[in-house]
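Data availability (excerpt). The following record was deposited with the supplementary files.
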Amino acid sequence: MDSGIYAAYTGLLARTQALDTAANNLANAGTNGFRAERDYFRSVLTDRITEQPASQVGSAVNGFGVLGGNKLDMGQGQIAPTGNPLDLALNGNGFFAVKTAQGVRYTRDGSFGRSPTGLLQTGAGEAVLDAKLQPITIPSGAVQVSPDGTVSVAGAGGSTIAGQVGVFDFASSASLIAEGTNRFATTADNPPILAAGTIQQGALEGANNDAVHGSMQLILVQRQAEMMQKALSAFNNDLDKVAAEELPRV
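Predicted structure:
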């Protein structure tokens, strides 16, 4: 059987999977701190090559690509001022740590607030953690957050340091596990380390995938999928023609 039908089929499958990624990126273009996912491809022969190298003819005929998976785009998102002193944006590498019901999770969404008891928390009521992965309690008063995450509160007797917001990075961002739109978990063999990123107070970081480019990418992948579908139909029609006209002559 002509290997072209396999190339068309895997091409259609890869573009169909890539459509899901492109649609998710576009849907979260307005999500604070969202990290887009990018598709990467590998050769269909990569996992089949043993000690003997593939022939040049075999590589040329069968060396088409398949979707290898997705990886996080760690590029910086656009930072927009909000005027809220507890909105924090990250410049450079790193993640905030928050304590959830499932354990510690990491996020670039710095839309924080202060609970009635003074706890620095997310909009979902999850505690924001310091450099030692402990909750931060902020007393009443005007809050000032320095670029290194130090939280100071102005009072009658002067400024008091309430804690330091932790900023963490990982040796391998590829090992992060996406949970929801802007939350990530890590594994035991990829522990958090202190990051060099800085904090900008009174601002939020947007997604690193804007709606315009997201729409263009979605349209491009849709067209590619349509082309692969037409190619697959052409191969199927040719095979049907051979079966109907040539095989009876044998």
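Summary of structural features: The CA atoms of residues 170 and 192 lie 5 Å apart.
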